[in-house]
Specification:
A hairpin with a 6-residue loop joins strand 2 and strand 3. The chain is elongated, with a radius of gyration of 17 Å. By secondary structure, the protein is mainly β. It starts with 21 loop residues before the first strand and ends with a strand. It has a three-stranded antiparallel β-sheet, with no helix packed on it. 8% of the residues lie in helices and 34% in strands. It has one helix and three strands; from the N terminus they run βαββ.
Length: 73
């Protein structure tokens, strides 16, 4: 990624239709941990391995597909 791409809210184009994508914001996603029946058995202990991953969310105004990108630090 070049320096001029950093901080540009309209960075990139849709991989499907080529339209410029628009930044919707940054969201935090839960990753890791335990799911399913093991979570019921482990309770709060099952959440110890979880972490949060921040991702920028971009949307295509033409085909409405969503793309995710790791934010520039």
């Amino acid at each position: 990624m070049s320096k001029e791409d950093q901080g540009d809210p309209n960075y990139g184009h849709c991989l499907r239709c080529g339209e410029a994508v628009e930044l919707l914001g940054t969201e935090s996603f839960r990753v890791g941990g335990v799911s399913g029946g093991w979570h019921l058995l482990g309770g709060a202990l099952a959440d110890l391995g979880e972490g949060m991953l921040d991702l920028e969310v971009f949307a295509c105004p033409r085909c409405r597909k969503v793309e995710l990108r790791v934010p520039v630090s």
